[in-house]
Amino acid sequence: MTERVEYWIACSGGADSVALVHLMKEAGKSFGVLHCDFQLRGEDSDKDRDFVRNLADELKIPYREKKFDTLKYKKKNKQNTQQAARELRYEWFEEIARETNALICLGHHKDDQIETFLLQLKRGGKVNGLSTMPQFRECFVRPLLSYTKEELVQLCKVNNWAWREDKSNRSNQYKRNLYRNALIPLLKKNDLSCIYELTDHFKELRGRLEHLKLFSPNKYGAHEILIDNWSKLPKWIKHLLNSELSSGVFPLKEIEKLCNSKNGASFNSEGLTIVKDRDKIVFFDDLIDQDVKSIKKLSVNDGLTHQKGIYVDVAKIAGELKVRSWNKDDRIKPLGMKGTKFVSKFLKDQSVPSYARKLHKIVVDQNETVVAIVGGWINDNVALNVNTSEAYYIEC
Hints:
The chain is of the alpha+beta class. The chain has helices at residues 15-26, 43-59, 70-77, 81-100, 110-123, 127-130, 149-158, 175-188, 193-212, 227-232, 235-246, 252-259, 343-349, and strands spanning 7-10, 31-37, 63-67, 103-105, 136-137, 140-141, 216-217, 223-226, 266-269, 272-277, 280-284, 294-299, 309-313, 322-324, 331-332, 341-342, 362-364, 370-373, 377-378, 390-395.
């Protein structure tokens, strides 16, 4: 039976996640607890699992746990241990969120934000990285970001809330631990408020840039920007936009090179594509087909009041209509023209981007005559006139 909860709290057994569990309990929230066993610390991992399991039992809240073969996953994907553990837990959390339609609460706090900021700074992070972890992202919530680790520990002590100490946190083997154990205590002696302010400023900056909508999706689901506008942007904004649109899979230097390439030049990576289309660069993954939703016969006497569709004269159509993709030999007689044009040439003349032309389906009669191109174009020979009594309404 699936537990009905609004929230799941990712609980390691540490002071921060334990404090979050108790605070949610006191607030009367409907929640459960999730625990990840990465099998990395032997007996200590078992004790952490038992502690969190007992905590859930004591508070009478739903509990789920999952054991991961982290080292096997790490080797298979050629990652370091921290990367492997992160991917494993977030994949599981997202699965739980989808299954139960609940939010996942994470125990990250203010000190975690400082560590993230410093790590990103060391790596040459851009606006995305330096703005650190968002409070809300998709199915994830971080309720404790305004509290320091010390405040959460004190809260546990005052309320006699037991927690587990992760001994591996004392080791400076990982850079995050080195910052946590050595650099941040040093910075705290000289006031950390400037870094807190910096992370807030970067968050605000990121939010403002997102509202600028420098990229907007077109009707095909692709994001495009004029190359001239792109060239005028500061490098750090280009990094942010690239991160938003492609998760950074396209190196910025490759995008710059593409801007100076011939029309139609493109490259692909991890299912994403970027292409130069005349005076624009365009990012896309899954494009939206320009297809037909339905075809109906309507009497002109009933009034032709439908929208977002195409009307053609039934009397001028041979047999039944069908929808298909166009091929290189298909031709259409555009409205007002005496002759015909290849569909491919017509779409090009209509300034349909090269990457989107194949998305436009065509409607043909039983003789394979092109009656219409989805997108609003019809064959002049089947257009309505004063003598039309019945029409096909092609809903797009």
